Amino acid sequence: MRRDNRLSAALHVLLHMAEEAHPLTSGKLAKTMMTNPVVVRRMLAGLRAKGYVRSEKGHGGGWTLARDLEAVTLRDIYDALDSPSLLAIGHRAENPQCLIEQAVNAVLNQTFRDAEDMLLSRFGEVTLAALSTDFHKRLAGRQGAYNPEAAHEG
Amino acid sequence: MRRDNRLSAALHVLLHMAEEAHPLTSGKLAKTMMTNPVVVRRMLAGLRAKGYVRSEKGHGGGWTLARDLEAVTLRDIYDALDSPSLLAIGHRAENPQCLIEQAVNAVLNQTFRDAEDMLLSRFGEVTLAALSTDFHKRLAGRQGAYNPEAAHEG
DNA sequence: TCTCATGTAATTCTAAATGTTACATGAGAC
DNA sequence: GTCTCATGTAACATTTAGAATTACATGAGA
Question: Which whole number is the average pLDDT over B77-94?
Answer without folding.
Answer: 84
